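Batch 3, record 17
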Amino acid sequence: MARSTVLVTGMSGLIGGALRSHLAARYELRALNRRPVEGVPCHQADVADLEAIQPAFKGVDAVVHLAASVGMSAPFDEILRANVVGTYNVLEASRRAGVRRVVYASSGATVSGYERDMPYRALAEGRYDAAPAWTPLTHETPVRPAGLYGVSKVWGEALARHYADAHGLSVICVRIGHVTAEDRPRSPRDFSVWCSQRDIVRMIELCLAAPDTLRFDVFFAVSNNTWGYRDLDHARQVLGFQPLDAAETYR
Amino acid sequence: MARSTVLVTGMSGLIGGALRSHLAARYELRALNRRPVEGVPCHQADVADLEAIQPAFKGVDAVVHLAASVGMSAPFDEILRANVVGTYNVLEASRRAGVRRVVYASSGATVSGYERDMPYRALAEGRYDAAPAWTPLTHETPVRPAGLYGVSKVWGEALARHYADAHGLSVICVRIGHVTAEDRPRSPRDFSVWCSQRDIVRMIELCLAAPDTLRFDVFFAVSNNTWGYRDLDHARQVLGFQPLDAAETYR
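Prediction for the assembled complex:
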């Protein structure tokens, strides 16, 4: 039986690299990337150019859309091009090509504006005595984006909902926490929002493997952090996601 | 005492016209409009051009941002230019000019995707026997945008939240229902989502007059419709909004 073909945008990034090593044995991987990616079929193009990226989607079963401008201080023009237009183009190209599912790399930045207020501020600052009890934010909590980056991820999720409703495209949004190159927490805030490389990779794999009937959903992805404030119950219930790592291990 | 200066974008539209007649006696009105608007100081420019619109914001106390591409079938490029970039530009120009408050014309289209499913579908289709009971959607219900237009309004609300948090700009989002030129319902759906001209005008005036401490909020604006599904309690509690009209009057 033929393995599913999965197109990964932004494979040259940190999560893209981790995903590649993990999925290579189970999926037929392809890359859509601005820079060349060695060792997998790579279509070199910019997600901001719909016509240029369209050929990469031919014969693809699922897309993992990681490509984005990730800087919290990126200028508006870059966010607009890479994230706002880029995500529209990836969903539109997926629709045109008859792709079955898109896994969209959203971000905890859709809600991390809550870290401006207590008790989430205390958690993000590592002042745990100031945060004796807190309610986790769920995927249904009103968004509160941090930065234009966070705003652009809210846009992507809304677009995903529209494509699922209007075009039947299955789009699963993963609000990824802080994945680090060292693969360990590196700031006080990371003890709340860190996500290990293997945890994000397993989450994305669960999204790829979820039944076709899952048309649209939103999940947080962080490790099992003692001081986390992002709900993981929903991902556990729907996808069976159980993080293997925890930031607290590194204290 | 000097009256407040209010800049209205898109004054040549239906709501802009109604707003103008109502506010002219109480506010010093100005227009930012692509087409000329007679009888008020009008800065002619396109909201898609930040540098071109900036002069219109000088000395302005509050902005009512109505300008938008409103077509449910408008192409992506138009939505991107007029709504996505346009709303960023209006908020950014407001921030630079030290504007106190922006009232953002959001839309019920941020949630009208729920009309795809029961019981909201029955309400929107006028099949009232099929909808014996329903829970109103509130400003905290997860968005479910209809069309790229609805997606662009979710973007605007997220951007508003970011500007309120990061820059202290007060932005109030009004999810406007269906305002008609005839000023009465004209389809079965309107018996659920119609908003009379005087109801939307009063809502916007309440948003302009709300205390400075109201930094960010989201309200639905529809008339007091028997078959409505959009919560009005929040607007009543926070702003004292009481619709004067009701679609049912026209049955």
